[in-house]
Design goal:
Involved in endocytosis. This is NECP2 protein. The structure is a single chain. This protein is α+β, with helices and mostly antiparallel strands. It contains 3 helices and 7 strands, in the order βββββββααα. A 7-stranded antiparallel sheet has the order 4-3-2-1-7-6-5. The termini are far apart.
Length: about 260
């Protein structure tokens, strides 16, 4: 995967100083640099490509590169702070041909020096996190893998609660008694007796009118209240007498 270069920090004003050789292992001191006579001034830009950060000193107007310091570890030998100030640092520049030199850089504003330091810290904190994630992923790949597949002949049993029994299967539900014509009736109250202690009366069969057979389909319909027998036969007699008179007038039949 191709790496791209990102910008971490830009400071428009930075001063560059010549650093005298260190006489002992003690740290650098900015008071020895002739701070009132900087060797160069310009712009500082910190970029990152992959895990490496680059401190670039550029011309303010043209952006031409004056010097560059690759940083592979921080804190480290590539960037060191001085012992007598928080605004000055010593960086190791390289020209790409193997030649190296140590120069001093300083910021007029203390806040710019703080941003410079934090930008490098954040970048290498991210590098350590990425390295840890890569190591964990490698350990997972090399470790034993969990096999969740079924072995040959292995079965699994599922227990599912609250499953309704199929219709028509054996169960404790008692069938409802069927009335005339196959009509299902509700079961009698507990004890088979009504609230007064008497057995409920049987359902009465609807009266059958002459010439009207009672069928199963008629029983399933709501039955109207039957009129008194005298009225039913009276209406039927009137209808029969009217029909006989009309037939006699048309055909000459004699009524018996």
């Amino acid at each position: 995967e191709e790496e791209y270069e990102s910008v971490l920090c830009v400071k428009p004003a930075v001063l560059v100083y010549r650093v005298p050789p260190r006489a002992s292992n003690r740290g650098y001191r900015a008071a020895e640099w002739q701070l009132d006579q900087p060797a160069w001034s310009g712009r500082l830009r910190i970029t990152a490509k992959g895990s490496t950060a680059f401190i670039k000193l550029e011309d303010k107007s043209s952006g031409e590169l004056f010097a560059q310091a690759p940083v592979e570890q921080f804190p480290g030998i590539a960037v060191e702070g001085v012992t007598d100030s928080s605004r000055y640092f010593v960086i190791r520049i390289e020209d790409g041909n193997g030649r190296r030199a140590f120069i001093g850089v300083g910021f007029v504003d203390r806040g710019d020096a703080f941003d410079f330091n934090v930008a490098l810290q954040d970048h290498f904190k991210w590098v350590r996190q990425q390295s840890e994630l890569a190591r964990q992923a490698q350990d997972l790949e090399q470790g034993p893998k969990l096999d969740l597949g079924f072995k040959e002949g292995q079965t699994i049993k599922l227990s599912i609660a609250n499953v309704k029994k199929k219709e028509g299967g054996t169960g404790s539900t008692r069938p409802r008694p069927a009335g005339p014509g196959g009509l299902s009736l509700l079961p009698p109250p507990p004890g088979g007796k009504s609230s007064s202690g008497e057995r409920p009366a049987a359902l009465s069969t609807p009266a059958q009118l002459p010439g009207t057979p009672i069928t199963d389909s008629l029983l399933s319909w709501p039955q109207p209240t039957a009129a008194p027998a005298a009225d039913v036969w009276g209406d039927f007699a009137k209808a029969s007498e009217s029909a006989s008179n009309q037939a006699q007038g048309n055909t000459g039949w004699v009524q018996f």
